[in-house]
From TrEMBL:
SMART domains per the UniProt record, alphabetical: DeoRC, HTH_DEOR
Keyword Transcription included in the entry's annotation: yes
Record PROSITE patterns: HTH_DEOR_2 (PS51000)
Domain of life: Bacteria
Protein name: DeoR/GlpR transcriptional regulator
SUPFAM superfamilies noted in UniProt: NagB/RpiA/CoA transferase-like, Winged helix' DNA-binding domain
InterPro entries assigned to the protein according to its UniProt record, in alphabetical order: Carb_Metab_HTH_regulators (IPR050313), DeoR-like_C (IPR014036), DeoR_HTH (IPR001034), NagB/RpiA_transferase-like (IPR037171), WH-like_DNA-bd_sf (IPR036388), WH_DNA-bd_sf (IPR036390)
GO MF annotations in UniProt: DNA-binding transcription factor activity
Length: 252
């Protein structure tokens, strides 16, 4: 129980607000078990209930971001490893917001003459902290405090001046019904624009994102040339992707 409740706590911490049904689906637990875990975490003052959701009881956003980077880090590293061979010397790439990309900065460190455009402030700092031979361009815009990324009209206009060889995009949820979705509209606006300005689009999503739907959809699975994940998804996804141009790869 101790390990599982810790995993549930980390998931809530990472996603900030989560429904009971989502926890049941992600962790394959009964409703009674999930509610028992929730009550224990509330008693420990680690989470709180709020309008049908449970939320992490934390005010320090930078600590929250660090937790998201550390959460499921092995899965994220394996996804970054899948993406690495597709980034070639001389490429111009876009890297959007998302903690999976923090590991991407490490695995492409030996590439040469890259131009990396990003709205992800933490990723930009990570690149600066490596020996990566790259021209790093940070797009302007309003900073989203939750994602530590630039969004808004200025960011959209700036992106219009580029055409990328490849884009690397994350999502909060992936479903057959709603495609790839996210929690906030400004982030989705950036993602939609990037998809339209890239020769090849790569979706980087860990297995916990499948069968999750969030309010704002930014693309269908078929809008991506590659979908990388850490674990083989349900057969319904494999069967659907076979009808598309999309290539799916997983590390396990």
């Amino acid at each position: 129980m101790a390990k599982k409740i810790t995993e549930v706590e980390e998931y809530i911490f990472k996603n900030k607000e989560v429904k009971v049904q989502e926890l049941m689906e992600v962790f394959k637990l009964s409703e009674s078990t999930v509610r028992r875990y929730i009550n224990q975490l509330i008693a420990d003052d680690k989470i709180k209930k709020d309008y049908g959701y449970v939320t992490a009881n934390i005010n320090d956003n930078l600590v929250n971001i660090k937790a998201r980077i550390d959460y499921l880090s092995e899965k994220k590293i394996s996804i970054a490893d899948l993406a690495q061979p597709y980034i070639k010397d001389g490429d111009t790439i876009f890297v959007d917001s998302g903690t999976t990309h923090m590991h991407l900065a490490e695995v492409i460190e030996k590439k040469h003459d890259l131009t990396i455009v990003t709205n992800n402030l933490l990723f930009a700092i990570k690149v600066i902290d490596t020996d990566l031979n790259a021209n790093l361009i940070m797009i302007p815009g309003s900073v989203n405090k939750k994602t530590i990324s630039a969004t808004g009209d200025a960011a959209i206009r700036f992106i219009d001046d580029f055409y990328f060889d490849k884009s690397f995009i994350t999502a909060s949820g992936v479903s057959l019904e709603n495609g790839l979705s996210n929690r906030t509209l400004p982030e989705c606006d950036i993602k939609r624009k990037i998809i339209s300005r890239s020769r090849l689009n790569f979706a980087l999503v860990d297995d916990t994102k499948f069968n999750q739907i969030y309010p704002f959809s930014f693309g269908d699975i078929g809008d991506f040339d590659y979908l990388f994940t850490n674990k083989k998804p349900d057969d319904k996804y494999i069967d659907h992707i076979k009808t598309l141009k999309t290539n799916i790869k997983w590390s396990d």
